[in-house]
Each structure stands twice: as structure tokens, then as C-alpha cells.
Task: structure prediction
Amino acid sequence: MTKTPNQIVHLRAAAVSVVYDLSAPTPQVLHWGADLGPLDEAGLAALSLTAAAAVLNNAPDTPRVFSMLPTEYEAWSGTPAIAGHLGGTRTTPRPKTVDWDVEVPADGVGGALSVRLRDSVTPVEIDLHHRLTHAGLLETSLTLRRVAEGSRTDDTPYDLTGLLSLMPVPGRADEILELSGKWCRERSPQRTAFIDGTHARHVRRGKPGHDSPYLMFAGTSGFGFRHGEVWASHVAWSGNQHWLAERLPEGAGALRGVLGGGELLTPGEVRLMPGAGYQTPRVVYAWSDAGMDGVADRFHTALRSRPQHPTSPRPLVLNTWEVVYFDHALDRLLDLADRAAQVGVERVVLDDGWFGARRDATAGLGDWSVSTDAWPEGLHPFVDRIREHGMQFGLWFEPEMVNLDSDLARVHPEWLLAPSAGLGPSSRQQYVLNIAHPDAWAYLHEQLRKLIGTYGIDFIKWDHNRDLHEAVWRDPDGDRPAVHEQTVALYRLIDALKADHPGLEIESCAGGGGRIDLGILERTDRVWPSDCNDPIEREVIQQWTSLLLPPELIASHVGGAESHTTHRVTATPFRLITSLFAHAGIEWDLTRCNAGDLRTLREWAGLYREARDLLHTGRTVHADLEDPATLLHGVVAGDGTRALYVWARLATSAAGQSGRVRFPSLDPAASYRVRIRRDLGDASLHQNSGPAWFDAARTDWITLPGTVLATAGVPMPTLNPQQALLIELERLVPCP
Result:
């Protein structure tokens, strides 16, 4: 890094500015948000001068500040960035800057700031790391090290109870939106006023969970997908998490609120002796003046620029779970593989039930060898048939879990992640394996490595079907908390398998969408956002999932007419269209499909191959609509030349007409060819005919100006519930 003598650091990228003042004992963030332009020394000095808050009545005699590591020493009465103690003492840290470095790339876009602080009370040093990426995301992390004092206190561990990344936001951010949910209804939005106090979400499931906050937005009143100024945070960690949005009446320095988070540490989980350290997970921040879609643009750009991001076309998948469940009859599976090849499937995944005594959910987890009862010849006959058709082969695993009715649990009860005093209740008839135990980790690594090599596995569906409760490492000297170690061991195991088998792809599936975060996405290739293939539920789940992840990382499978999880019956075109806008797949029993169904699936597979270059590289957009029963979303090519939208209706509405609906992210100065794609069949209409443009576009391409499509809007047809249609656009020459 290059040392600079300036006391104020200004980083800029993608219409974002972050400005730091390093002159104070603990550095401060002067600004995070809209680009301030190339400020000169006078401009930076003015920004620093105007960052000083007033001295209030009945308050400290110096202006309150909000630093990059806020503590009570600064008169900060909110959540402290650092909390811990040394044997019950030294609980009032006073960190001060001892060194800092800044690095700005040659092109001047983005940059990184590292600040080292030393605490005069507690024997620790802390490094703050901030990096503004080319996409305008601010990535932050902290590293804490215990230093030696040369006294008897060196024999006492420093118990770290919290180390958080916190960023200030202005008072105009007066609403909070984040996500919650449950199994099969993941990522359900909840919006509240940003009022005084702490809005905290504590994740104690050992993984982000089906109710994960996922993204926490603070924004201007009524912000939506396409409008409003928003600040957002994401905790990129696959274990326990701490999220918060906080306001105090006196503000946060010159600003009003705070956004941030980090790992939620269990008491006793991080105990540091001299020389030991702890690094927080990344907390990633995004700002946008174009609503939540603007935040999504930044995350998608950043993810797509990673060296490990998938670059090959995302193969059309068939997964066997909702087809055969635990019934692994070879003849039926071979028939399924043949029919999959006929409709255009490119990857077949064999789900749960192929190993050990796993004939149902009560036994076999942990015994990762092919069942000789279910598969007397091994998996070879099935894998060979798949390879004959030129398809890839994938296999389901749940390595972190174990059934008590398994050889593994009987031989190695000490490998269970559970109290020595006895097991708590099971969940889905399973318990958790302590994969941080060196022997358990080595066992899993060897078993998975051998299976991947033996069958040339291209893809793993990596499941995780229960929360971690009483997650402690069994120890004769006393059980100790182990969620942090479990998470690190998971990362290490996946990294090792990827190193052993270059090209191996892994899906993060945790009972559906229970482990989706940028920590797991550093080492996996897609996520399973929900166990629910019901398109009514899936449309909403995918809408909110896409605010962090681009479509090529989101798996979506078309199931049978009757949903496995909701038992709702939906029309085939609706199910197919919903799955199209993601990494598409099939979980429909092809052996029971009639000729018409198979023909429609072939058409859909062809449409997916035609459209996936657009869908997996373009901008994901969502319209802000008055009617919550309708959805308009789509993908627009990066150069704006093509677009594909979905108009969907989830339920009936009081209004008979939609009114004029604007298509997001089109150029008002251009003209567009527009048509309704009817490859998958026609949507059922709740009307006699029209609108006129729609009737014309169902027959052939029509031309409409961008001002009509993007600015004025067009009336949309009134669909019956649980219906959707595809609208394709191509840009023509700009309007004169």
C-alpha cells in the first residue's frame, strides 16, 4: 500500500463517494453516499469542518463524534463496535490510531483504507479494513489481535464478545426494510419506520436461516425497487449473525443513524491469549439513489466480476427429489434420464436416498457410501446412462448432519456437536456433526473426495436441514461453544474439495434457502432459494432473492402441476415462466408426462438456451406497482439492445384495469420492437380482449417508442390469477 500524508481520504467509484477524516484519535466517516466529485483540499476541509456536531444541553462538553470504531469514550451511547473483557475487567476500550495506509488503483476508481488502532486499556490491536470496489460497494472487516503485556495478565484470556462494522447514515433515511420468512416462504419483506432505538436482528441458528435478514435497507420515505435513496448492508457470514439499524436522539456525530453488523459471538467463543487473533466476516454496504434495484445492480456487477464466477452457460438441470423421493428404482431412474435427454436437460442430479441405510429420513445420514441394497452395482448404471446422453451428473449430500441410526453415530458419538450431558431434541430425525473435529473433518473430506473421483461428479447439492442448537464441542474439561469453528470448518471443507476437483460445482441448499450469504457464495456456484416450487410463492421469493444475487446464481425448478409443498395446482406456462428467470431446472416426473407435456418442455428448454445469455448477463429489474397482486419484472441487456419481461398475476384485485404500467430500465429516446412470446402457451385472460397493443403483439412484432413504454406506460392485460406472460423487446434506432 502507498502511504499518503493527507489527513482526509476520499475514495470514489461508480457514482459513490466515501470520505474519511484520519486526523482524530479514532478515524471518522465524513460521508458515504452520492459522489461528491473531485474535491480539492478546500472542499475536503469544508466537509471536515461541517462534520462537527453541536454541543447539546445536558450533554458532554465537547461535540459528540461517531468514529469508525465507536465506543463509550466518544460518548457514544449506542451499540459499541467492540465489546469484551479481561477476566471481568478492562471493559472500557479507548482505541487510538497508530498507523494507516491508503491504496488507490492506477485508474483512480475505488481504493482501500487500512487503519491500525491500539487500545490503551485492553491489550489488543485492531485493524480496520475498508475497500470501495469498482461496483461502488464498500467492503469492511476488522482484525483484532491480543498483544502481550509482560505481566501476570498475560495468563488471562481476553474474552471478545462483539466486534462490529458500523456506518453512519443521514436523517433522511427514515424507513427500514429487511427480510424474514420461514421454510417455503423465505425472504418475506418487512418494513418499519426508522425510529429512535435499536432495530436488531440476532441470528442464532448456526446459519443465516429461512428468516435471514439477508439485506437491511435504510432509505427515504416510501423507497421502492426503482425510486428512493437507500443505504444497505449485508453480513457475508454463514454462521450466527448480528444485524442492526440504530438511532439515538442526539444522532451519530453530524449524521442521524447507524447501519451495520457482524458475527454474533456466543459468550466464551472467542478467548484470546497473547499472539492470538480474530477476524470478522465482511460486512458489505451499498448506496443507491435509484431504489433497491440500484443496490442489486452493484451486487450483481461485483459478483459477476469475481474470478470464480460461473462463465459457462448454466446447464438445464433435472433433480430427482420431487420425482422419486427415496424410491431409487433403477429402471424408473434410467427411464427418467432418457426422457430428460429428450427434452433437453444438460445435468441430472440424484437427490437423497442413495447411501447407507437411507430409505427414509430416519437413518443413514453420515454413512457416505453407496447403498448396496438400493444400488447393488453402485451408481455406475445410472451415471453411465447420463454420460451416454452427454449430460452432467450431480449428487446430493448433507455432510454436516447425522442420524443416530447410522454407523457413524454409533462408532463416533464424540463427533456430535452437542452437550456432553446429553442430546437435545432432534430435528428431521437428525443431529449435527462437529465438522471442526479434525477426525470428523478428515472422514468427510476423504469420503466425499472418493465419491467425486469414482463417479466423476460434476455438481454437489449441499444440504443442511436443521438449525444448530446447543452447538458445543464435547470436551472432558467442559463443553465449549463451536458455531464459529463449525462455520470455518465448513468453508475449509468446501475449499479443499474444490482444490481437489477443479471444475466441481456446488449448490448451497439448507432446507431450501436457509444458507444464502456472500460468505458461502465465495465458494459455491448457486443457491437453492426455497424448497417450494409453487410458482405463486416462488415469484415473490425470487424477486427478493435477486436483490443480492443475479439470476444465474439462483436455482429454480419447474415442478408438477400440484405443488409438493402447498398442494396448489397451477398452469404449466406459469410454472415454466417462473423457472425461466433463474438457473432453470426440472423437478417434474417426466415418466408420467404425456406427449404434449414433453413437447412443451422441449420448447421451454429451447427458450431457456436461447435466452440464458441475456438472463444471466443483463440487468435484473422490478417495476414498482400499486397492485401487490401483479408483478412486472425482467432482464435488460447491458447494452440495452434486448429485454425480456414477465407480467404476472398472483391473485385477483379489486380494480379491473391495471392502468398505464411503465417498463423499467428502457431508454425513452429509443424505439422498440415488442412481441408477446407464446412458445409456452397462452396465459388465461380475465377479459374479453385488448388492450389493442397487446392483441397486436400477440400476432407479430409491433413498434413502440421508449417514451410510451418507459415514461407514459402502457395498459396491461388483466390476467386470471396464477397466470404469466412473456414480453420480448428489441431496441431500434433512436427516435429523431
Q: What stands out?
A: The chain has a mean pLDDT of 96. Residues 632 and 647 are 5 Å apart (CA to CA). The longest strand covers residues 241-252. Residues 623-734 form a domain with the Immunoglobulin-like fold (CATH 2.60.40.1180).
